[in-house]
UniProtKB/TrEMBL annotation:
The keyword Disulfide bond does not apply. Residues 309-869 form the TonB-dependent receptor-like beta-barrel domain. InterPro entries: Beta-barrel_TonB, Beta-barrel_TonB_sf, Plug_dom, Plug_dom_sf, TonB-dep_OMP_SusC/RagA, TonB-dep_OMP_SusC/RagA_CS, TonB-dep_rcpt-like. GO terms for cellular component: cell outer membrane. It comes from Leeuwenhoekiella polynyae. It is a multi-pass membrane protein. Keywords: Cell outer membrane, Membrane, TonB box, Transmembrane, Transmembrane beta strand, Transport. This is TonB-linked SusC/RagA family outer membrane protein. Residues 4-111 form the TonB-dependent receptor plug domain. Belongs to the TonB-dependent receptor family. It is found in: Cell outer membrane. It comes from the Bacteria. Transmembrane segments: none annotated.
Length: 913
């Protein structure tokens, strides 16, 4: 990809630069929280449990892969955390197995090769890049305003009142109802102030307006680059300060890098790359279902006047939620995450003879993270402070040794041989202390100030895994026309059983530069033409349980003679036959350049089959365990990729270049063990996705809605769910048993888009440059677990509700839109198509207008001076109303309440001295 964009527009994360740039590489911004990583998938989803993120290799150092959790977050850090995008020289993605298999293990999901900047021969070159901008939320959810909330609340309260006893009518006043009840009960009595002019004593609140804000972003980057015949160097430093678009959210990063290479003599050179970084994230827990943003969206839009939004010694609003103000909770809750990370590479290279070189490198990725959480008593409904402290340490050490031999026979035959071995050890330590309550003062927030430490929430964890690898590769070329590559890698992983640790991953590829042939070289409009074919195997050993192949013991309590005794018991069902997931890829492609390079296109067709998938499956309860990890199943991804670059206008003062990419991928489960039994997944009440042979991974599996129940439907014996009545949603009795139940769930879509596309148009005129990036996807579905939590059937009136409820059924004479049931349904919960949405969207990701001031300011001080202004995410469209972001869909099709994306206006300066 073109890494010039890393310096030409404001980019805070390396993976952000990859959005919309390459066919077959889907980059999702699953969260708008500053500092959160993007999700990257190469050629679809192939693994069920072993992760689908690619392997990242920085300057030859393979980083330990990370796995996202259910909410799409990387709980123990992402490989690209804290890396300064301004340090990047190039990014290359290896998609087919022949190219990636030299990395063998962990390469089944593709490989992202990142090269950082190095020194260059010449006098020192100083660069200073800075930008400042403001950002706001891309969208707010459509929820009821105070008047609409009152309308719904009144309808529910009146319904409860009428059904609570004989002689009770909806037109009875609050005083009459109180007299009948002999007391005051908000379940049956409305607030008279709702209907009085100016609603005296009440505040009407838009909680999202209170929550979201205009944030600021500031970045400063300084670097020096140069070298001579003995030493080359690149040194940089960076500071980023990014306020979130919501109160209480902030991200700061400090990073530095020194890449130094020393040439000792004609044969020997060595060097060091070191990159320390430190980041601090302030996040009181805004993201996710049942977290603070959920409370903001669903908060009662009415409060007693002057009660400081339900905080303090005053009683909360009687008709509202019995929880404190989410805004004050956000402002007073500490959620602080600190990460200190250092990437270090030491390397040496020696030329034994002409064409024969050996190289050795020592690589260490050391991360230390600390997370502190504290919620004071005055924002807790039980008036009890709570807190926690956790930390983790990660160390990834890799020693790699290679020998290269390059031969060239009269510029006709070229041969390159590579052999090597590597040793990798990864250690992870995690500690957590949870204090449920018992803090003596809200001013002392350290855990030692609490007198009630939770035993179940306090633990330590230590893991270690080792990977040993041997690899080789041969590349042969004849007259630069015919190219052959073959490679093989043997990996041994401590994750697997004694007899199954080793995996062998071969590959082969062929290339034919047809434009070198005489019958094509005379065709003037063809600049170049190449045919490609490849086959290869790659492995995957990224699984959440590093010790699933061996038996482990843990602590448990047992009642003995009336007393509890603590002892050690087996805690897992070991599988000594556990082995590698394998990914086999067949790829055919062509590259064509036309009209002296004005048009270039690349097309690939691939079939990627993942087999022996690692999965936790149910086992007989007689074993003493509920599940065991095993190699089971097969998944196929099949698709094509198109990349097109056109130089529409060139040669004059005005130029215009277009880069377009489009990819299509279909995903299908081919096998699920010996009997191919479907596996249900999902969470919260009822499973709503399924693994089923012949269907895409994690297909959505819910009950279909079919309008609204009428009295006639019920009289005709319509299938009902629980105690449904007239005005409730009507569901399809898929299995025909006469009742609605989870057994009526049917396949209702899949979470993976059919098409992903991106297009960048670049214009230049004299000193001006303009870049516009369009990106989007189509063909997938998203299930909003978050939307269901604020839009579910049977929800009480205290919570606010999505705006769909405006068009609800009110009576047979006022049936609404035929989709939204009545306000006061009480028949219970179900997983149905109400919360199923299209994940299609298009978005103008970036518009950047720059001007080269060097063309008008003549000075010996600057060798380059550019100013630019950027608009991010200001234009786009989607049909997702159950949450903030259609990209937030995780691998199993859910949105758990992702934080919205931000739109920003940023201005920046690029100086070169």
């Amino acid at each position: 990809m073109d890494t010039e964009i890393l310096n030409q527009r404001p980019i805070s994360k390396v993976d952000q630069a990859m959005v919309g740039q390459m066919a077959g590489v889907r980059v999702k911004q699953t969260s708008g929280v500053p500092g959160k990583s993007f999700s990257v998938q190469v050629r679809g989803t192939g693994s069920i449990s072993a992760g689908n993120q690619p392997l990242y290799v920085i300057d030859g150092f393979p980083l330990e892969p990370a796995t996202q959790n259910g909410s799409g977050d990387f709980g123990s850090g992402n490989p690209l955390d804290n890396i300064n995008p301004g340090d990047i020289e190039s990014i290359q993605v290896l998609k087919d197995a022949a190219a990636a298999s030299i990395y063998g293990s962990r390469a089944s999901n593709g490989v992202v090769l990142i090269k950082t900047k190095s020194g260059k021969l010449g006098k020192p070159k100083l660069s200073f890049n800075t930008y400042y901008g403001i950002n706001q939320t891309v969208k707010k959810l459509d929820v009821l305003n105070a008047e609409e909330w009152i309308d719904r609340a009144s309808e529910i309260i009146d319904s409860r009142w009428v059904s609570s006893g004989t002689g009770r009518t909806a037109d009875q006043t609050s005083a009459e109802r109180q007299a009948i009840l002999g007391g005051f009960d908000t379940n049956f009595i409305k607030d008279d102030r709702w209907f009085q002019e100016g609603h005296p004593g009440l505040d009407y609140i838009d909680w999202q307006d209170e929550f979201f804000r205009t944030g600021e972003v500031k970045s400063y980057q300084l670097s020096a680059r140069g070298g001579n015949e003995f030493v080359n160097y690149f040194i940089s430093g960076e500071h980023l300060n990014q306020d979130g678009i919501a109160r209480g959210v902030n991200y700061k990063r400090y990073s530095a890098r020194a890449n130094i290479e020393i040439t000792a003599n004609e044969k020997l050179k060595f060097g060091i790359n070191i990159a320390p970084s430190y980041s601090v994230t302030q996040d009181p827990g805004v993201e996710g279902k049942d977290n603070l943003m959920h409370y903001v969206v669903s908060a009662t839009p009415i409060s007693e006047n002057g009660l400081d939004y339900n905080i303090g010694d005053n009683a909360p609003y009687a008709w509202g939620r019995s929880v404190p103000s989410p805004i004050r909770t956000i402002e007073n809750t500490i959620g602080e995450n600190k990460i200190f990370r250092t990437l270090t590479t030491l390397f040496g290279e020696y030329e034994i003879s002409e064409g024969l070189r050996i190289k050795s490198s020592l690589n260490l990725d050391n991360t230390e993270a600390k997370n502190k959480y504290f919620k004071p008593s005055f924002v807790d409904r039980n008036r009890q402070a709570s807190g926690s402290f956790s930390s983790y340490q990660k160390q990834n050490f890799v020693n790699e040794n290679t020998v290269n031999y390059d031969l060239n026979f009269n510029d006709t035959h070229t041969l390159s041989l590579l052999g090597g071995a590597s040793y990798s050890i990864f250690k992870y330590d995690n500690q957590r202390i949870l204090a449920a309550e018992g803090f003596g003062s809200d001013d002392i927030t350290t855990i030692n100030a609490a007198n009630n430490i939770s035993a179940s929430g306090t633990y330590t964890l230590e893991t270690k895994k080792v990977l040993i690898s041997y690899f080789g590769r041969a590349q042969y070329g004849y007259q630069d026309k015919y190219l052959v590559t073959a490679s093989i890698r043997r990996d041994g992983s401590s994750n697997f059983g004694r007899d199954t640790k080793w995996g062998v991953f071969p590959s082969a590829s062929l290339g034919w530069n047809i434009d070198k042939e005489k019958f094509i070289s005379n065709v003037e409009f063809i600049s170049n033409m190449k045919l490609r074919a490849s086959w290869g195997l790659a492995g995957n050993n990224t699984f959440s349980d590093d010790y699933a192949s061996i038996s482990r013991i843990g602590f448990s309590n047992y009642s003995y003679n009336g007393n509890f005794a603590t002892g050690q018991v087996p805690i897992n069902s070991a599988n000594p036959n556990l082995s590698w997931e394998e990914s086999e890829t067949i790829n055919f492609g062509t590259d064509i350049g036309l009209f002296k390079g004005r048009i270039f296109t690349s097309f690939d067709y691939y079939v990627k089959t993942n087999k022996d998938l690692l999965l936790s499956v149910p086992v007989p309860t007689a074993s003493g365990f509920s599940s065991a990890v095993t190699n089971i199943g097969k998944v196929e991804n099949r698709g094509w990729e198109l990349e097109l670059t056109t130089r529409n206008l060139q040669g004059g003062e005005f130029t215009w270049t277009t880069n377009f990419n489009l990819s299509h991928n279909t995903n299908e489960v081919k096998q699920l063990g010996p009997d191919n039994s479907p596996i249900l997944g999902g969470s919260f009440d009822i499973e709503h996705n399924i693994l089923q042979v012949g269907q895409p991974l994690y297909s959505l599996y819910v009950v279909q809605q079919d309008g609204i129940l009428s009295a006639q439907d019920i009289a005709n014996g319509a299938a009902l769910y629980g105690n449904q009545t007239e005005g409730d949603p009507k569901y399809v009795d898929a299995n025909g048993d006469g009742v609605i139940s989870p057994a009526d769930r049917v396949l209702s879509g899949h979470p993976n888009p059919d098409y992903v596309y991106g297009m960048t148009n670049t214009f230049t005129y004299k000193g001006f440059d303009l870049t516009v990036l369009l990106q989007g996807q189509s063909g997938g579905k998203i299930y909003s677990t978050f939307g269901r939590a604020i839009d579910r059937t049977g929800q009480g009136y205290q919570d606010n509700h999505l705006g769909f409820i405006r068009d609800r059924w009110r009576s047979p004479e006022d049936p609404g839109n035929g989709i939204e049931g009545k306000a006061y349904s009480t028949f219970g919960r179900i997983k149905n198509t109400d919360w199923l949405y299209s994940s299609d969207y298009w978005r103008i990701r970036n518009i950047t207008l720059g001007y080269d001031l060097g063309s008008v300011i003549k000075t010996n001080i600057f060798s380059g001076l550019r100013i630019y202004v950027t608009a991010e995410n200001w234009f786009g469209d989607d049909n997702y109303y159950g949450g903030f972001n259609p990209e937030a869909v995780n691998s199993n099709g859910d949105d758990y309440g992702a934080f919205p994306l931000s739109k920003s206006i940023v201005t920046g300066l690029n100086f070169t001295f």
